[in-house]
Design brief:
Oligomer: single chain
Distance between the termini: 66 Å
Number of domains: 1
Number of helices: 3
Largest sheet: none
Order of helices and strands: HHH
Helix content: 55-70%
Number of strands: 0
Amino acid sequence: MFSGIQEILLILLIVLAIVFLPRITGRRQTPVANGRGRRRPYLKFSGPLRLAILGSIAWLFLAAVYFEPWHRDLPPYLYAGAGPVALFWGILWIAAGFRKHRKKPRV
């Protein structure tokens, strides 16, 4: 019924719906006394982080189109597609942990 790329896009659409639909249909924020809405620190992404997320998604998509893991062997796609993305985000995660727990100089 579906070809391989359509299945991947359908799964991506389902995941995006699961993530964003509750936020869209949820309760609206109630303003706080200072006139500003509730703070959402988990939604504040910097420009480079947004670019890295978009680049990761694009890399996975292009690698899937090139390697066609649904028709051929899966390992080449995992090594050249998902592997570099996982390595990149793993390094960023480790670096963020070191930055978070670095001793702050005393004033």
